[in-house]
Design goal:
The protein is of the alpha+beta class. It has a single domain, classed as Alpha-Beta Complex (phage-related protein like fold). 23% of the residues lie in helices and 31% in strands. It has helices at residues 86-90, 96-126, 142-155, 170-176, 188-192; strands at residues 40-45, 68-73, 76-85, 130-135, 164-168, 195-199, 202-206, 216-223, 227-239, 246-259, 265-271. Strands 4-11-8-5-7-6 form a 6-stranded mixed β-sheet, with helices on both faces. Strands 3-10-9 form a 3-stranded antiparallel β-sheet. A two-stranded antiparallel ribbon has the order 1-2. The longest helix is centred in the middle third of the chain and has 31 residues, at 96-126. It starts with 39 loop residues before the first strand and ends with a strand. The model is unreliable at 1-17 (pLDDT under 50).
C-alpha cells in the first residue's frame, strides 16, 4: 500500500544569527522629529565669538559673525517584500510571518549600522576624523591604544565628564575584556543595549558592522553628539495581495546620517 508522504513544517523556526546592530543607536537622534515631509535637514553650527580685553572708558569693537550650516540628507532607502502562499502557511504552524517580520526588521537595522560605519570611514579617508594605527592589538598594548584615543578627544576639548561609546570588533574585545569593569549581574537594561562592560566613563559594545579596509578594522570611540542620525520611515507591514492566495510582508526604511562633530570621534585601526 502506498502511503502518501507529507512534508511537515517544524514548529521551531531556525533563525539566522543576529548581527549586533547598535551603531546608529549611539548617534544623536534629535533631528528625526524634523524629518516629516522633508528630504533634508539643515543643521546650524554655533559660532563662538572672540573674547577681547576691555579697557574701561574705551569703545568696544563689534564682531560680525555668520552662521554656517550642514545638511543631513534623507537619501538612504531600503525595503524588503516577501510572501508566503496559503498552502505552505496551512501546512506550517502559526508564527511564520511574525518570525519573518522580526528578521526583516533586523535586516533593515543592519543597513542603518552599515551606513553609520561608512560615514566614519569616509571621515577618516578625508582626514576630518583622526585615526590611530593600533596594528596588531594585544593585551600588552590595548590599554595604551584606548588611552591614546581618549587623549585625542580630550585634546579636542571633549569633556572628561562626557559619556562615551567605545565600539570594538570581537577581535579587540577579546584582548580588552580583562580591563573592563564588569556589569552587575542584575543590570538588565545595560545588557539589552549591548553594553558588555565599562572602561572609565565609556560604555563598551561589541560590533560586527564596523568599517574595514584591506587590512584594518575601524574601532570607534565617540560621544553621542559626533554623528547625527535621522529616521523618516521605519516600518514593517502585512498585506494580502489581490492576485494570489498568500500573505505578504513588506518593510521600508528611510534614513540619513551625518558626522556633525568629527572632533568628538576617533578611530582605532586594528589588524583584521
Amino acid at each position: 500500500m502506498n502511503v502518501a508522504m507529507q512534508t511537515i513544517w517544524h514548529k521551531a523556526y531556525e533563525r539566522a544569527l543576529e548581527t549586533v546592530t547598535s551603531l546608529r543607536n549611539h548617534c544623536d537622534f534629535k533631528y528625526s522629529k524634523d524629518t516629516k515631509n522633508a528630504k533634508e535637514v539643515k543643521i546650524l553650527n554655533a559660532v563662538r565669538p572672540t573674547v577681547k580685553n576691555y579697557v574701561p572708558g574705551t569703545p568696544i569693537e563689534k564682531e560680525y559673525i555668520s552662521a554656517t550650516d550642514m545638511t543631513l540628507k534623507l537619501d538612504q532607502f531600503y525595503y524588503f517584500n516577501i510572501a508566503l502562499d496559503d498552502i505552505h502557511e496551512a501546512q506550517s504552524v502559526p508564527g511564520a510571518m511574525e518570525a519573518t517580520a522580526k528578521e526583516g526588521s533586523l535586516a533593515l537595522a543592519e543597513e542603518g549600522d552599515k551606513y553609520v560605519a561608512s560615514l566614519v570611514k569616509a571621515g577618516v579617508d578625508a582626514g576630518t576624523i583622526e585615526a590611530i594605527d593600533g596594528g596588531a592589538i594585544t593585551k600588552s598594548n590595548v590599554i595604551d591604544k584606548v588611552e591614546d584615543a581618549f587623549a585625542v578627544l580630550y585634546g579636542n576639548n571633549c569633556k572628561v565628564s562626557e559619556s562615551y561609546w567605545l565600539e570594538v570588533a570581537p577581535s579587540m574585545f577579546k584582548v580588552f575584556r580583562p580591563s573592563l569593569t564588569e556589569l552587575l549581574t542584575n543590570n538588565v537594561e545595560m545588557a539589552k543595549k549591548g553594553i558588555v562592560g565599562k572602561y572609565g566613563n565609556a560604555n563598551v559594545t561589541i560590533e560586527n558592522l564596523l568599517a574595514t579596509d584591506e587590512t584594518s578594522v575601524y574601532n570607534q570611540l565617540r560621544t553621542e553628539h559626533a554623528v547625527a542620525f535621522a529616521e523618516q520611515i521605519n516600518k514593517v507591514e502585512a498585506y494580502r495581495p489581490q492576485d494570489a492566495f498568500e500573505d505578504a510582508l513588506k518593510g521600508l526604511y528611510v534614513f540619513g546620517g551625518l558626522v556633525t562633530r568629527p572632533e568628538e570621534i576617533v578611530v582605532i585601526k586594528t589588524n583584521k
